[in-house]
């Protein structure tokens, strides 16, 4: 029997990762590996798109307020400033917590843009998804909403599109009337969406004396939710020091009950008696900020009681995102 001659395989040209174009998931990968794209470079591209960014708003003015508007505040708006200025025909860009029909963005009839913040996003980087939506809204036809999609993995982020300086001052609203500049001409769908949203909105007020603290009213009690920029472990140590010393409350009848974890930041939460208004809590919150600054500066090891207080705070921490 004649011997089979060994077959030689011609070497396929190998491409650098950056040179591999995107093709269909079931097509051969253009890199020349012989595998399908989804099992080769497509997997890397998908992982890059879905990788979770822990602090998507880091580096933006008002990072703490971005987190609050994303997770805690029902109805609020804030004007956004573009790094390179507004394109012709776009008089303004406004960030809104929620838009009618849960639209990701809306180009109004006058050319202005509303960008929705509390929408589901397709990737692990909220900043990139919002930037993609904003860029498409700037060129959308006036009077049309912008639908969501998965942003390209190499697309810009909000940090690339928005001006890095300037104030970020949210305006909190009692309802969603800002959706409709002309209520008489609103469509039935928008009108119905507005009524549902207003009925579900929790009364919320942003404090003026401290940053990113929001009072809200619920049927049984009121709350203060305060988004803080400090590193989590250091902040929990400081809160534990104050709690163990009996200095963590905001006055009679108030109580630090735990915290949220949201987008890489910690949000301490206080229960307040139902009769305490946002105005009532302004001075106690400012005084607490001073006590917290002192506790954050302490570097001594936690005492036994402080460790117990820290454990209690940690056990009552809830992750929102």
Topology:
Layout: H1 41-50, H2 63-71, E1 76-79, E2 93-96, E3 105-107, E4 113-116, H3 126-138, E5 144-146, H4 158-161, E6 171-172, H5 188-200, E7 204-206, E8 213-217, E9 222-226, H6 232-244, E10 255-262, E11 265-272, H7 278-297, H8 304-315, E12 317-319
Parallel strand pairs: 2-4, 10-12
Antiparallel strand pairs: 1-2, 1-6, 3-4, 3-5, 7-8, 8-9, 9-11, 10-11
Helix pairs in contact: 6-7, 6-8
Mind explaining what this structure looks like?
The chain has 8 helices and 12 strands. β8 and β9 form a beta hairpin. It has a 6-stranded mixed beta sheet with strand order 5-3-4-2-1-6, covered by helices on one side. It is α+β, with helices and mostly antiparallel strands and 321 residues long. Residues 1-13 have low confidence and may be disordered.
